[in-house]
Specification:
Strand order of the largest sheet: 3-5-4
Helix content: 10-25%
Number of helices: 2
Structural class: alpha+beta
Distance between the termini: 65 Å
Order of helices and strands: HHEEEEEEE
Length: 114
Protein backbone atom coordinates (compact mmCIF):
# COMPACT_ATOMS: atom_id res chain seq x y z
CA UNK A 1 0.00 0.00 0.00
CA UNK A 2 2.85 2.34 0.92
CA UNK A 3 4.54 1.70 -2.45
CA UNK A 4 1.27 2.42 -4.30
CA UNK A 5 0.91 5.77 -2.51
CA UNK A 6 4.52 6.70 -3.37
CA UNK A 7 3.95 5.80 -7.04
CA UNK A 8 0.74 7.87 -7.14
CA UNK A 9 2.47 10.85 -5.52
CA UNK A 10 5.39 10.65 -7.97
CA UNK A 11 3.01 10.38 -10.94
CA UNK A 12 1.05 13.43 -9.76
CA UNK A 13 4.25 15.42 -9.31
CA UNK A 14 5.47 14.51 -12.78
CA UNK A 15 2.10 15.38 -14.31
CA UNK A 16 2.07 18.85 -12.79
CA UNK A 17 5.70 19.45 -13.76
CA UNK A 18 4.86 18.64 -17.40
CA UNK A 19 1.74 20.80 -17.52
CA UNK A 20 2.17 23.71 -19.95
CA UNK A 21 2.52 27.11 -18.33
CA UNK A 22 0.90 30.10 -19.96
CA UNK A 23 2.53 33.48 -20.31
CA UNK A 24 0.58 36.38 -18.73
CA UNK A 25 -0.56 37.41 -22.23
CA UNK A 26 -1.77 33.89 -23.04
CA UNK A 27 -3.57 33.72 -19.70
CA UNK A 28 -5.24 37.09 -20.35
CA UNK A 29 -6.34 35.96 -23.82
CA UNK A 30 -7.72 32.69 -22.45
CA UNK A 31 -9.71 34.55 -19.79
CA UNK A 32 -10.95 37.01 -22.41
CA UNK A 33 -12.17 34.22 -24.71
CA UNK A 34 -13.82 32.46 -21.77
CA UNK A 35 -15.84 35.64 -21.08
CA UNK A 36 -16.89 35.87 -24.74
CA UNK A 37 -14.42 38.59 -25.72
CA UNK A 38 -11.64 39.09 -28.22
CA UNK A 39 -8.23 40.66 -27.64
CA UNK A 40 -7.94 43.86 -29.71
CA UNK A 41 -5.55 46.78 -30.01
CA UNK A 42 -7.45 49.88 -28.92
CA UNK A 43 -6.85 53.54 -28.19
CA UNK A 44 -4.16 55.91 -29.31
CA UNK A 45 -1.40 53.72 -27.86
CA UNK A 46 -2.95 50.60 -29.40
CA UNK A 47 -2.83 48.65 -26.15
CA UNK A 48 -4.07 45.08 -26.24
CA UNK A 49 -7.33 44.76 -24.30
CA UNK A 50 -10.25 42.37 -24.05
CA UNK A 51 -13.27 43.74 -25.94
CA UNK A 52 -16.62 42.07 -25.34
CA UNK A 53 -19.50 42.45 -27.81
CA UNK A 54 -22.76 43.21 -25.97
CA UNK A 55 -25.82 41.08 -26.77
CA UNK A 56 -28.13 44.11 -26.61
CA UNK A 57 -26.08 46.29 -28.99
CA UNK A 58 -28.27 48.73 -30.92
CA UNK A 59 -31.36 48.23 -28.73
CA UNK A 60 -33.28 51.46 -28.07
CA UNK A 61 -32.70 52.80 -24.55
CA UNK A 62 -33.31 55.81 -22.28
CA UNK A 63 -30.58 55.18 -19.68
CA UNK A 64 -27.55 53.02 -18.99
CA UNK A 65 -29.66 50.81 -16.71
CA UNK A 66 -31.46 49.62 -19.88
CA UNK A 67 -28.20 48.18 -21.31
CA UNK A 68 -25.33 45.84 -20.53
CA UNK A 69 -22.98 48.77 -21.32
CA UNK A 70 -23.87 52.44 -21.71
CA UNK A 71 -26.85 53.98 -23.47
CA UNK A 72 -25.31 56.28 -26.12
CA UNK A 73 -26.74 58.97 -28.38
CA UNK A 74 -27.66 58.04 -31.93
CA UNK A 75 -26.11 59.86 -34.88
CA UNK A 76 -22.80 61.26 -36.03
CA UNK A 77 -23.13 64.66 -34.33
CA UNK A 78 -23.26 65.00 -30.56
CA UNK A 79 -26.52 66.42 -29.19
CA UNK A 80 -26.34 69.36 -26.82
CA UNK A 81 -26.01 68.46 -23.14
CA UNK A 82 -29.41 68.16 -21.47
CA UNK A 83 -31.34 67.92 -24.75
CA UNK A 84 -33.85 65.10 -25.16
CA UNK A 85 -32.31 62.50 -27.44
CA UNK A 86 -32.72 58.93 -28.64
CA UNK A 87 -30.24 56.37 -27.37
CA UNK A 88 -29.06 52.87 -28.25
CA UNK A 89 -27.12 50.34 -26.22
CA UNK A 90 -23.42 50.52 -27.11
CA UNK A 91 -21.95 47.76 -29.24
CA UNK A 92 -19.03 46.61 -27.08
CA UNK A 93 -16.86 47.24 -24.03
CA UNK A 94 -14.27 49.34 -25.91
CA UNK A 95 -14.12 52.64 -23.98
CA UNK A 96 -12.02 54.51 -26.57
CA UNK A 97 -13.41 57.12 -28.95
CA UNK A 98 -16.07 59.80 -28.48
CA UNK A 99 -19.53 59.12 -27.12
CA UNK A 100 -22.44 60.94 -25.61
CA UNK A 101 -24.17 58.92 -22.91
CA UNK A 102 -27.93 59.18 -22.52
CA UNK A 103 -29.52 59.22 -19.06
CA UNK A 104 -33.27 59.63 -18.51
CA UNK A 105 -33.67 60.30 -22.25
CA UNK A 106 -31.30 63.30 -22.16
CA UNK A 107 -27.77 63.78 -23.47
CA UNK A 108 -24.90 64.03 -21.02
CA UNK A 109 -21.62 65.82 -21.90
CA UNK A 110 -19.74 64.19 -24.77
CA UNK A 111 -16.56 62.44 -23.65
CA UNK A 112 -13.62 61.45 -25.86
CA UNK A 113 -11.06 58.92 -24.62
CA UNK A 114 -7.76 58.47 -26.48
Amino acid sequence: MRVLLMVLAATAALGSACAPTLTPEQQQEAECRASGGKMQRVGRLQTLQCVIQYRDAGKACRSGSDCLGDCVAVGSTAPLEGRATAGVCQADSNRFGCRTRVEDGRATPTICVD
